[in-house]
Amino acid sequence: MAESQNVVHIERQEKVAVITLNRPDAMNAINFGMLDALTEAIDSVRFDPEIRVLIITGAGEKAFCAGADLKERHEMPEIRVKAFLHTLRRLYSDIEALSKPVISAVNGFALGGGMEMALATDIRIASMNASMGLTETRLAVIPGGGGTQRLPRIIGKAKAKELIFTGRRVDAREALDVGLVNQICEPHLLMDEAMIMAQMICEAGPIAIEQAKYAIDAGLETDLGTGLGIESNAYRVTIPTQDRLEGISAFLEKRKPVYTGR
C-alpha cells in the first residue's frame, strides 16, 4: 500500500480528479507497483459520485509515461510477463470503460504502454515537447496493451500500420495533424488547458455525458442502424431526469443550469 501511495498521486479539485503517475526518475515507467496503484486510483474515481471528469498525467517535465519498466521486465520469468500484460490490458480497458470522461495530459514521452494508456482515454492534450509512439516492434514484440486495436480506430488503419511497423515516434504537431491528440499547447500551459477542458465538460449534464460516451463507444463497434438504436436508448435514459428539466428551465430563464446528476 505504501508503494501504491508513492508511485501514483490522486488529487480532487471540486468535480475533477487528477491522477499523476509519480516515478519521474524512471520516466514514469510502469511496474507492478504502479499497476496496482493505478487500479486502486481508477476504482476510487469510478465510485465517487462527486467526480465528473478524470485527468491522467505524469510527474515531472520529461515523460507522461515511457511504457513498461524494462529493468523490472528483464528480471521477470515468462509467466510473470504474461501476468503483467493481462493486468495492464484490464487496467486500460477499465480506463476506457469508465463512465466519466478521461483526459490524458501528455507531457513529454508517451511510448509503448504509456502511449497505450493515452489511447484508452477519451481526449488527449499534448504539450509541445510530447513524443509519442508504439515502439514495441523495435524490441521484437508488438503492442500488448491494446495499441494494435485502439490506434487504428483513432487515426485510421494505414497510418496506424505505418507507426506500429516502423516504431516511429511522432512529435506534438504531427500527433495533432493525424488526429492522435485533440489539442497541443506549451508545456507550462498543459494542466491549465486540461483543466479548462474538464471544467467545460463539468458544465454539462453528467447523466447526458455518461450516455453520450456510451452511445459513441458502443455505436462505433457496430453498424449504423444498430448504433442509431443505441443512441435512441441512451437518449431515453436522459428524458426522465431532473437535470433535463433543469436544463430547459435554465435556458428559458436565461441562467446557468445547476446539474446534480439526478
Structure summarized in a few sentences:
The chain has 262 residues and is α/β, with parallel strands linked by helices. It contains twelve helices and ten strands.
Describe how the helices and strands are arranged.
Elements: H1 2-7, E1 8-13, E2 16-21, H2 32-46, E3 53-58, E4 63-65, H3 70-75, H4 78-97, E5 102-106, E6 109-111, H5 113-119, E7 123-127, E8 131-133, H6 147-155, H7 157-166, E9 170-171, H8 172-177, E10 183-185, H9 190-202, H10 206-219, H11 224-238, H12 242-253
Helix pairs in contact: 2-4, 5-6, 6-7, 10-11
Q: What does this protein look like?
A:
The chain has helices spanning 2-7, 32-46, 70-75, 78-97, 113-119, 147-155, 157-166, 172-177, 190-202, 206-219, 224-238, 242-253, and strands at residues 8-13, 16-21, 53-58, 63-65, 102-106, 109-111, 123-127, 131-133, 170-171, 183-185. It is of the alpha/beta class and 262 residues long. A 6-stranded mixed β-sheet has the order 1-2-3-5-7-10, sandwiched between helices. It has a 4-stranded mixed β-sheet with strand order 4-6-8-9. The mean pLDDT is 94.
